[in-house]
């Protein structure tokens, strides 16, 4: 059975930036995680998927500060907020537009008392309380 813990785990939108930066809409890196922020930062340090973030980490390393911008969010709200900060590719240190990393999480969901149905498969999930469909990314 697949792990659907992200349906109920609180997520955060976070910002990686240099102390001289003052605008998260244009500068630094915006991300979403359900992990503790320090765990997510450690993952970035070991493997950055954005070439611009990788370069910034190589050049500035410990100078980069990381802080949560929005916390305790359902996953679909966190990704919608990330999309507000990064509506297109290559803003700040982000390579992709916001919310683009986890396509499967952006699918439309149909929830019944014992099943969660996505456009790709059905998962047996007794007593699941799933979020409302993500209208921002709803499948057509």
Notes on the protein architecture:
Helices cover 22% and strands 21% of the residues. The protein is α+β, with helices and mostly antiparallel strands. A three-stranded antiparallel sheet has the order 2-1-3. A hairpin with a 3-residue loop joins strand 4 (110-111) and strand 5. 24% of the residues are buried. Residues 104-140 have low confidence and may be disordered.
Summarize this structure briefly:
This protein has helices at residues 37-46, 51-60, 75-85; strands at 11-17, 29-33, 65-73, 110-111, 115-117, 122-124.
Number of helices, where a helix is a run of at least 4 consecutive DSSP H or I residues? 3
Mean of the pLDDT scores? 78
Strand tally: 6
Strand content: 15-25%
User: Radius of gyration in whole Å, from Cα?
Assistant: 16 Å
| Low-pLDDT residue spans | 104-140
Give the strand order, joined by hyphens, for the main sheet: 2-1-3
What is the helix/strand order? Answer: EEHHEHEEE
Distance between the termini: 27 Å
Structure classification: alpha+beta
Q: Shape, please?
A: globular
Helix fraction, binned, reads 10-25%
Q: Give a short account of the largest sheet.
A: 3 strands, antiparallel
Topology of this protein?
Elements: E1 11-17, E2 29-33, H1 37-46, H2 51-60, E3 65-73, H3 75-85, E4 110-111, E5 115-117, E6 122-124
Antiparallel strand pairs: 1-2, 1-3, 4-5, 5-6
Q: What would the keywords be for this entry?
A:
alpha+beta, 6 strands, 3-stranded antiparallel beta sheet, 22% helix, 140 residues
